[in-house]
Specification:
Blueprint (H helix, E strand, L loop, with lengths): L5 H4 L13 H11 L11 H13 L4 E4 L6 E5 L3 H13 L3 E3 L7 H4 L19 E6 L12 H11 L3 E5 L8 E4 L5 E7 L12 E5 L5 H7 L5 H13 L4 H17 L2 E2 L5 E4 L10 E2 L3 E5 L1 H10 L5
Parallel strand pairs: 1-6, 3-4, 4-5, 5-7
Antiparallel strand pairs: 2-8, 7-8, 9-10, 10-12, 11-12
Length: 306
């Protein structure tokens, strides 16, 4: 059914979470920079914080419910700065950070995470915990299968939760429900969906109005150039741009490698019992394969089209 385009694939399969490049985003910014943007004020923070929620809601491929339940919005350096704040706050309150296996490794690598005790998969949640979960989930590119049960438990135990939506802008057919009292902080980023990895910007939706993000936003003491560039890209490209470009190619690549496509275009998976793919094994439970480099080359070569 498919021609052999293995010459394109080479050693393109990876283990990172980085998304496929979008050359037209880079081209748009090159044209913008040529207009000598440094000669004008770059503080568009207020417009950015107002526009970002509308950009999220504009997706026709995904739904995100509950953003209106967060009264505060802060500028964030990608989602990472918000993760730092949430973790710092939890440790300050002597809470235990709890994660699912397969979660974004940064969350456990920046402090003394107990690998024997603190995975949610290994022991029940307790009062005094704090939880971070990504949506789409970092290990699968889909919603975590226990997302709703997790939120119900955290509601009952008064456990604060942060939801990391870093991959929004690269996903499709996602229904992200943020209408849970336990969710205190949600972060989105333009890094993956709009290719701003060299000038990262993001937004934190919060029920807390304190801490470094709140103060920096109040003082307009932020990453103005990054925010300016991300706002310009959001005005030009929708959160559906990347999945619309690459979704069909993802299906082709996954068929070629006998992988399962996820709801995040650069992420695929296979069964953890498949020993041929053990190089991609995460936390002994998930095999996650990043196909981002294949997507760009196949898109430009049109090799995936019959």
């Amino acid at each position: 059914m498919y021609e052999d385009f293995s010459f394109l694939f080479g050693n393109y399969l990876g283990t990172t979470g980085n998304s496929a490049k979008v050359r037209k985003c880079k081209t748009h910014l090159k044209n913008l920079v040529r207009k000598d943007i440094l000669s004008q004020s770059l503080d568009v923070q207020d417009e950015f914080l107002s526009f970002y929620p509308e950009w999220i809601k504009s997706s026709k491929l995904n739904t995100v419910s509950g953003l209106d339940t967060f009264p505060f919005r802060f500028v964030s350096l990608g989602t990472t700065q918000t993760l730092d704040w949430f973790i710092f706050n939890a440790l300050k309150e002597k809470r235990t950070i709890r994660l699912f296996r397969g979660e974004y490794p940064y969350n456990r690598d920046i402090f003394n995470f107990d690998f024997k005790r603190d995975f949610i998969d290994d022991r029940p949640l307790e009062e005094g915990d704090s939880v971070i979960i990504s949506a789409p989930f970092s290990a699968t590119g889909n919603m975590h299968e226990e997302y709703d049960d997790l939120m119900a438990t955290c509601n009952n135990l008064n456990i604060p939760v942060m939801v990391d939506c870093a991959w929004f802008g690269t996903c499709y057919n996602m229904d992200i429900d943020l209408e849970w009292d336990c969710i205190k902080v949600v972060a989105f980023s333009t890094t993956k969906g709009l290719n701003t990895g060299d000038y990262r910007a993001g937004i934190a939706f919060s029920k807390w109005n304190y801490g470094p993000l709140a103060i920096q936003t109040e003082w307009h003491h932020g990453i103005h150039l990054n925010v300016y560039l991300s706002l310009a890209l959001m005005k030009e490209f929708s959160p559906d741009t990347v999945p619309e470009m690459y979704k069909d190619i993802q299906a082709y690549v996954c068929h070629y490698y006998n992988l399962k496509p996820s709801n995040t275009v650069h992420i695929a998976s296979t069964l953890s019992e498949n020993l041929d793919w053990n190089y991609f094994l995460r936390d002994g439970r998930y095999i996650r394969v990043n196909i981002k480099d294949i997507l760009l080359d196949a898109y430009e070569e049109r090799a995936w089209q019959k």
